Amino acid sequence: MTNSIAESRNAPACIVCGSSSLVDVGDIAAADLVRGYRKRFGLDVSGHFSGTAKLSEMHCRACDLRFFSPIITGNESFYRALASLAWYYMAEKPEFAIARRFVKTADSVLEVGAGRGAFAAYCGRQYVGLEFNPEAVAQARCFDANVIVEPLEKHALAHPASYDVCCAFQVLEHVADPKQFVASMAAATRPGGRVIVSVPNEAGLPGGTINDFLNLPPHHVTRWNDRSLGALATAAGLSLEAFESEKVAVYHHGWYLAVELCKLLAPHLMARPGNRVRLGFTDYALWRALWLLGRSGALILRPLLERTDRLRGRGHTVLAVMRKGEPTTPA
Ligand SMILES: [Zn+2]
Question: Is the pLDDT at 4 greater than 80, yes or no?
Fold first, then answer.
């Protein structure tokens, strides 16, 4: 997990593809972000936005990336506070099972933003995790996972073209320079090896959800879909091997129903550029009520939801598998 702070007061070009075909599609008041984080998580993020009144949501028409400008990422104390929330580091992520299909037992694996190192259980013995949070690193020892505190760039310089697979799950959306980040992952990967990244899918549940503060700065600063991930692969000199858009996970059925109810009953609360945050009493309470209704409904409708194909590809996550140079071993 990155914990650097980066600010860019001007965003003349797309941070992935370099195109100047950028559109400012909507603003979020920094004060609303501060209020939202305080209200939902009891976190004070005001220090991140000193001197910044608003953030603009920029949309690149060339590659479909969305990012918030100025780019303001979470600092160390922000991530320390988040890590103290019991649910923050998911031991298991659904995309682990997808990624596992692209990792052979004999492969050497580097995971960036490894958290507690839960993905090590899906790999062979040659696993190295990089993580900034010392508490997460300490917990990784309980999993017997080899997780160390070291920045990706430094590790890539010391271990060039060393790993069969380099992966980062739910990390890219936190970093200020995703192109450089994936280029560093590629630098640590051997020719023919794989770079695997997963991110929240803007074309899935996260894209339509209002007041989703953890999908907003300073936590998440970019928003991705298939197209922008494809552009990222190209920008980092990688070829795209596969995309996997996750189905709505069982524990997100309530979220899915809340968004569907929102579409039907309160379409003005559906998230879109310029409408990502609504903190007025009525709107905030209405969305919370829909959320609770969705969760209750999910318990009743679970057998039905588990069988339906409507949830395919509309879940939280999209995963991209990229290849460095020509494959040297069969898939
Ligand atoms: Zn672009």
Answer: no
